[in-house]
Each structure stands twice: as C-alpha cells, then as structure tokens.
Amino acid sequence: MEKKIDEIDFEKAGGIVPVIVQDNNTHEVLTLAYSNRESLELTRKTGLSWFWSRSRSKLWQKGEESGNTQQVKKILVDCDQDALIYLVEPSGPACHTGERNCFHHSLL
Questions:
Q1: 9 annotated binding-site participant
Q2: Structural domain contains residue 25
Q3: What is the DSSP secondary-structure string of 11-71?
C-alpha cells in the first residue's frame, strides 16, 4: 500500500524521521540518516537521497561533494509511519570515511 507524505509522522521526533539506507540489491545497511518533509519531497522528486543534517541544520544530498550519490529505487514506511527505509543503488561508498557502509566498527 502506497503512503502519502502527509501520513509520515514527522512531529514525533521534532520534524524529522530516521532513514535506514540499504543497498537495493544486497539489502546491506549502508547508513542511518534523517529526513524532514522537504528532504523527503526532494528525494521523491529527484530520485536521489536527500537528508536533513542535524549537526549542520541544513538539507544535504548524499554525494553532493563526494560524487557518491545514491539512486533511490524504493522508499518503505514502517508500521508507525515514523521511520523510513531507502533502497538505493549507490555509486560509491556510503560513509564519509570511504568505507562502503557507516557500520564498520564493532561493539560486541
């Protein structure tokens, strides 16, 4: 069932929702980012990953500086409508460190 942007609960977390970014082919988790309404609208309009930077308080497109863009193939919404998954085709590493994904450190 397709959801509308108006159904996403941005207010639960102060105007943003978490976005899990996964490789469309392997389903490997690449990163966790955040989206507000505007970045989600840009993602749907352009087909590229756009997010809200909590530390810089601004919109950013994945790959705008590095060239490592993510073509969004599908957006999934969780049952509470307050979290998203972007299934993407990455053009390069997801992590700013150059690692394929942002989860390359182990805690246990």
A1: no
A2: yes
A3: GGGTS-EEEEEEETTT--EEEEEEE-HHHHHHHHHHSB-EEEETTTTEEEETTTTTS--EE
Position 27 in a domain: yes
**Mean pLDDT rounded to a whole number for the chain:** 95
pLDDT band at 3 (very low <50, low <70, confident <90, very high): confident
82 marked as part of a ligand binding site: yes
According to the annotation, is 6 in a ligand binding site?
A: no
Residue 58 maps to which CATH number?
3.10.20.810
pLDDT digits 0-9 by tens, 37-76: 999 999 999 999 999 999 999 999 999 999 999 999 999 9
Position 6 in a domain: no
| Predicted TM-score (pTM) of this structure | 0.94
Q: Would the annotation count 80 as a binding residue?
A: yes
